Amino acid sequence: MSGTEGLDPDRVKCVVWDLDGTLWDEIAVESATDALPVPRPRMLAAIDALAARGVLSSIASRSAPSVLGRLEDVPDLRARFLAPQVSWQDKSESLRAIAKDLGIAVEALLLVDDSPYERAEVEALLPGVRTLDPAEVPALLAAFEGREETPESRARVHRYRTEETRRAEAERFRGTREEFLRWCGMRLTVGAATPEEIPRALELAARTHRLNSSGLTPDRLRELAGSAGHHLFTAAMTDRFGDYGVIGAALVDGTAPAVRSVPLLALSCRVAGRGAAAAFLFRLMERSRAAGAEEFRVTLRPTDANLEMRILLRQAGLRRTDDTTDAAVGAAAGAAGAVLGRSLHGDLPEPPAWLHVSDREDTEA
Question: Were 21 and a residue from 114, 118, 121, 325 both cysteine, which residue would form a disulfide, CB within 3.0 to 4.6 Å?
């Protein structure tokens, strides 16, 4: 898909930049010296403006791999890009590799490339990826003008850079995956969302897809969170490499004394496969039982993207109920929702052994 018309900025997690003719004017491999061409100031400004709003940048260039080595010699420039791909392979393959390295859906990428051929190749093989000519970058920036700059968004590039370090250490680690996760010393803390965390919770509702139970819109989430009997919770995580920040949000409806309903459970894809989603869900169950609830429910709107969330809910013992009250929340998100529930009597699931879970404060779930 080409152009910015109808662009949903919440679906764009990473902008992928071509080099020759896009990031800079010249062709790097034709340079008479080892120095890289001088980047266009307006492109660097665009990359920095996007980063302030939490949008990552990467590189996909059909050029000699040695160009990437030369890029490593320019730290200020290299630091702007995550998972760069410089090779003679098709652009579509480079984009697939970038998405895999970043742990995001390929449809969350947007390509900026001056070549109509390269854009057409990507559009044909990756129809969910939008492509732009460099002249359309101002329109791209305009699409993001309404997105709030938050501490979380400004720190996102650094946190993905830390994630690259984690992956490198995992590759070098001699032991099992579980042993590596234990070695990381991951800690998850759960508590009522602070005013400073609310923008991040709204962002998770809008931008997460793999680990999102209902697709509740930010406006609807804000409305429900401000209503009587509803509580917005967040989960933050750290490990030996650094701070992940707020990686999860959940809205808990406590208006029915014996039931705790969750109209939205959303977690960052950055923590997929580390047990954080399960640990957050299980802690919400524990807090619900401690508050006197006998049943726990989650609103689910199945999509092509949230299979991982559906599997998690099933593994946690939640099954479809006949109650349609909570399903209206899913319907408000744009499609019919189902309600999954389970009793809070008896044993509850335990978080993964490698993840330490605690409460930030003693508040009702």
Answer: 114
Which of 50, 8, 46 shows the shortest CA–CA distance to 149? 50
Per-residue pLDDT tens over the stretch 125-157: 999 999 999 999 999 999 988 776 777 777 888
Dihedrals φ, ψ of 137, to 5°? -60, -40
Token pair belonging to 74? 């320019």
Among 236, 240, 234, 268, which Cα is nearest to 252's?
A: 234
Per the CB < 8 A criterion, the answer to whether 248 and 266 are in contact is: yes
For the beta carbon of residue 13, count every other beta carbon within 10 angstroms: 23
Give the count of beta carbons closer than 10 Å to the beta carbon of residue 279: 25
pTM across the whole model: 0.76
Torsion sign (Cα): 149, 190, 232, 194: negative
Instruction: Please answer whether residues 305 and 105 qualify as being in contact, where contact means their C-beta atoms are separated by less than 8 angstroms.
Output: yes
- How far is it between the farthest Cα atoms of the chain? 74
